[in-house]
Sequence to fold (238 residues):
Amino acid sequence: MSLHARRRRRNAATVTPLAALCTTAAVLVLPSPAAAHPFGDPQTVSIAPDEQRNDVVRVRWRVGGPDDLTLLGVSLGLLPADRVLLDGAVDYRATDPAVIASSEQFPAYLLKQITVADGARPCLGSVAPLRALARIGATIDYTCPGPVGSVTVAVRMLTDLNPAYRAMATGPGGQRAVYGSGEETHDWSLTSRAPAAGSTSRGRSAAVQLAGVIAAVLLVAVGVPLVVRRVRRRRVLA
Fold:
């Protein structure tokens, strides 16, 4: 075999494993359909007691980004699969929220992924009519077996698509929680009260007074050296 032929065989043997390695790497880093979306605006959830019925808990869920609705619609079989591109980008269209809201699958998904319990007793959920889903969100009333003072609320929205999804939740009296994979449940007090207006005013007044003191100290710290320098300059000129 000639020297030239041996070199071509050696180069081919080197390139073939390298090409296979590059192909494998490309497959490994190819994002899944939900890969690019959990890191945008988070979902939001609010928990509140019903003002008229002491056995009802109202939960409102709102999606973080409208493309997350499209992704969910594809997952539920409501939108064509090709709306999620190979690179993970989502082809969102303004009609997607209405398609999802008018389906039977989405309310069932809500009731499966968001649950409320009074101790060991589950509360029965009912989804309110869905209007402007992307902008307003969805509201669910959960009727418990009896009057409730505290409940356990579980939120698993979208974490079945990607565990990186998070939901920022708020409750009565300024309560807050973050839902996510591994942190799916949280206990909420429905009788918590927000701080009284008087205490808030006093807090603001104290903050204003503190700011005034700090400003005065800074003024003295800056002003005294200037006065000293001016006095020294006058003495030198004299």
About this structure: The helical segments are 3-29, 66-75, 96-101, 105-113, 133-136, 197-237. Strands lie at 43-49, 56-62, 114-118, 121-122, 124-127, 138-143, 150-155, 166-170, 176-180, 185-189. The two ends are 104 Å apart (CA to CA). The CA atoms of residues 74 and 215 lie 57 Å apart.
